[in-house]
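dumping this here so i dont lose it
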């Protein structure tokens, strides 16, 4: 089983979100999608992210931009880095994923595409309404749903849970509850973990 803790405000999470789905399908592994707020994680256990943004190492920053585009090309995804609004407030977007539950994947996919490919500000209600229309979600029910306290509480609980389990960013991925991986570039190791798990269960 795969648990995928994610916030759509991260380009590396977009890559992993895209790339893990065919991997899971190929190996017959179920994915449990766990929306979080990565800003909450940074504030709690990983404030160094903010320091890096304020004082980037120029050579490293230049390479990271190239690295991201190399991965985007490999996945056949369009990613603009940085987008016009960065970082973006993804609270409403991630609450929307919680509210949609098992039906969140088309919505989350459209969120990623709209923000990273379309360079639109997904913190804005008008943009979220466009995404709802695109994926066939009733926008009035959507905005009512994401204002429910239970939805807000669940997003907070997911974020606190991933930190309690050792996570420090997005995407944080667990195989069989305890085997943690961080980032898109760990997918080959996740593949190996899933294969080991299948072999031991056989």
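and the seq i came up w/
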């Amino acid at each position: 089983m795969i648990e995928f803790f994610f916030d759509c405000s991260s380009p590396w999470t977009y890559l992993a979100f895209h790339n893990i789905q065919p991997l899971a399908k190929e190996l017959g592994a179920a994915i449990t999608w766990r929306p979080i707020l990565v800003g909450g994680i940074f504030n709690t256990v990983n404030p160094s992210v903010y320091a890096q943004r304020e004082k980037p190492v120029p050579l490293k920053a230049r390479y990271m931009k190239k690295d991201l585009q190399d991965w985007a090309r490999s996945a056949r995804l369009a990613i603009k880095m940085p987008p016009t609004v960065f970082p973006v407030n993804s609270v409403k977007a991630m609450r929307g994923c919680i509210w949609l539950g098992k039906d969140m994947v088309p919505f989350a996919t459209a969120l990623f595409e709209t923000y990273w490919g379309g360079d639109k500000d997904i913190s804005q209600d008008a943009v979220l309404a466009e995404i709802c229309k695109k994926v066939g979600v009733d926008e009035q029910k959507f905005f009512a749903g994401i204002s429910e306290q239970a939805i807000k509480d669940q997003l907070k609980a997911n974020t606190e849970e991933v930190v309690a389990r050792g996570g420090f960013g997005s995407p944080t991925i667990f195989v069989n509850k305890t085997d943690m991986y961080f980032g898109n570039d760990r997918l080959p190791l996740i593949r190996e973990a899933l294969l080991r798990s299948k072999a031991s269960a056989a």
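The longest strand covers residues 2-6.
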